[in-house]
Amino acid sequence: MKVFSLFALIGAIALPMTSQAKTESLVLGGGCFWCTEAAYEMLPGVKSVVSGYAGGKTSDPTYKEIGTGRTGHAEVIKIDYDPEEVSLETLLDFFWDAHNPTTLNQQGADIGTQYR
Q: Chain-centre distance of CA 61, in angstroms?
């Protein structure tokens, strides 16, 4: 799994990518990354979605280590999108439709500090 250097806990950071002028990136932390990854992959204008981790105190942790709750990582996704096809506002609106920020360390049936 990819460990992102950005910490995006229940939030978003839009980053311009240098390799493609029309593509921008967004990192979101919203519970189970596989669920959010699958949902965003269906949106027009989204070029790629990569699951990974943000924050934490362990370098290159395994999925099993993160599941213990002792590494401090959060599950996140990195979305590469074309802002001419889909707006940041649309991506964030979609996030808030899928994410419940009122449940600490839980999204649906997923429970643990990595799901905050």
A: 17
